[in-house]
Amino acid sequence: MYEQEKKNMQMISNYAGIRVDYVQGGGGNTSYKFDDKIMAIKASGYSLAEVKTETGYVTVDYMMIKQRYEALRDKAAADVEKETLDINMASITLLDGMENKRPSVEVGFHAHLKRAVIHTHSVYANILCCSEEGKEIAKEIFGTSEYGYIFIPFINPGFALSMHIKDEVNKYQSLYGKQPEVIFIESHGIIVHDDDYLVAIDIHEKVNHMIAEYFCVQPFPEVSIKSDQDWYISNTRYIADFINAFSADETYFKEVVLYPDQMVYLGNNLGENILVDSDKGRIIYKTNEKRARVIEEIILGVAYIVTEIKRKNLNLKLLCDEGVDFIRNWESEKYRASIN
Q: Are 192 and 136 in contact (CB under 8 A)?
């Protein structure tokens, strides 16, 4: 049952997941609506590259999510996040043989969009989303393009972001007679969606190419770590050069926070399990190989975005203090970080 739909879910997930310039570590998520009730959504703790036809995602009743989220609009913010998690878990509708996993924390906005949704933390899109001038530059790039877009200010992930995206998509549709194909989220990433999964892939590819071409970006580097007795050491030359050029130590990565994933994966680990040796331009990871590579990808993404923004004489847009506090205390992100 749903054999082709499962394959489509794997295809959009793996398309983005094999590209470190599109997703770093366990970042990003995808969804595919199997019918008018069941939606596949990447499961927390999986990377997009790990999604297969039978694993890496969970199926939910997305119509229930839409209805129950709407009923929460008038609730106090403190109450909403726990209730949202309860709704997400209650929406799980497992198909035969599926593992019972937690849906992505961003399942809410997926429920409100078209059939195939690709959400990534593309380093190219985040040159726009993590720069003060990004919103205006987006007009230059996409103002006369074939793709409709909206640019969302930073909103705390989860319920608030989901409902804000729903409202802004509806506003755009009332003005232009169609939903925007592209959604940029400040200090976060990009969403594209379409009823045809191949079109969604094509939109994501072309939009990122347009941004990369506009900025004449440098090629994205290869990620490399190496074993050092019990631990692992960064072996990515680009990171070593970045540390030297920006005098980047542990304090730098704590203070220059671009987006939530940087906090989720680095956070309190800096100075404990992640040691930045700025004198030698290297980073030591006191963890296993898989997690060391995840962290290396996150740091490389940050280094690349900062470098490209500075190279174009733009100004960094850092994650706001409210966003930092929210992510630091958000149970869903603590859960995701613990299993990646």
A: no
